[in-house]
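Quick one: sequence plus NAP SMILES, need structure tokens.
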Amino acid sequence: MKIIILGFGAVGQGVARVISMKKDYLRSKYNLNPKIVAVCDRSGAAIHEDGLDEELLLETKTGKGKISLYPEYGIPGMDSLQVLDEIEYDCLVEVTPTDIDDGEPTRSHIIKAMEGGKDVVTSNKGPLALSFQELADCAKTNNVEFKFEASVGGAMPILNFAHENLAGCHIESIYGILNGTTNYILSRMANEGSSYEQTLKEAQEMGIAETDPYQDVEGVDAACKIVILANSVLNLPVTLKDVEVEGISRITSESIALAKKEGLLIKLIGEASPNALEVSPRLVSQGSPFAVEGTLNVATLKTDLADEVTVVGKGAGSVETASAIISDIISIWKRRR
Ligand SMILES: NC(=O)c1ccc[n+]([C@@H]2O[C@H](COP(=O)([O-])OP(=O)(O)OC[C@H]3O[C@@H](n4cnc5c(N)ncnc54)[C@H](OP(=O)(O)O)[C@@H]3O)[C@@H](O)[C@H]2O)c1
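Reply:
Sure thing.
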């Protein structure tokens, strides 16, 4: 399977690392031989029809900072759309940064690949939260696979889990902690009695919160994931503007202490159901499955047959998120065969 990776940051590099680590396993278990034929970052691209060396890709990016400096096959200045025209491939792995204003350039990358008859895997929430139906329709029209497990909860399996393991169930609602940064902040505030401002500052110093934390702390990131779950699992054709959103920036250490006295925790919870599309701080019991700490994500799916099913997992991380992308690639490979 010939793969193009657009974006070579934490997730793109995780994908290359996993392909390098799992080569023998993928071949022996699935008869799958993934070949990375092109990689693109903002400096340009590296392209080779016989396949690029994963370890050399990683070495080039970490050592020189630019994938276009890949020996012999690097092309400085070549942009992502050009790359899609330049070389024959089977599957696009789209892992550029999330944009929630217009979803670009990811939306254009995905549509171009699909219109060219290529399967697509992405971890990028932006275009899914803004234009889910357009992208799903485009995949259908062009008879290609479109998979995005990593876009919700990173390594926490939820989309494929809902579609495959719970295939016979009607899923009525989904609610969960879908943002690791806010869970980390709220967990530390509860454990240490620290203020929101101080905890956010420390989370930023540790690289857990972004320099501009707006999308995480104001609930926008979780709202994007609620939109994806609502569309993909509940069949609700909604977009980001349909979600009621309140973040955690007004939560005080006093309110957390008060909740704690009652055996409760404050968590940022997202909910998707036909009656509610919402992200807001809510109270959960200390012993409940929602009492997860640190950057963990958790989600409960309420079903007609299996009652409630809860999944927990790492919502971020290079190799962790790549695990979801690889699972999508394997699933596409199985279907194509
Ligand atoms: N990190 C996680 O744990 C995680 C988990 C779940 C989902 N996601 C999502 O996965 C996506 C990738 O995340 P990340 O953490 O890997 O981001 P990242 O570390 O910021 O990497 C983004 C990469 O995209 C490249 N890029 C930016 N604009 C581009 C363009 N126009 N054409 C080609 N490449 C471009 C960047 O190039 P330069 O290297 O030259 O800057 C960089 O290599 C995001 O949408 C994110 O929301 C991330």
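The chain has a mean pLDDT of 97. The chain has two domains: 2-155+318-336, 163-314.
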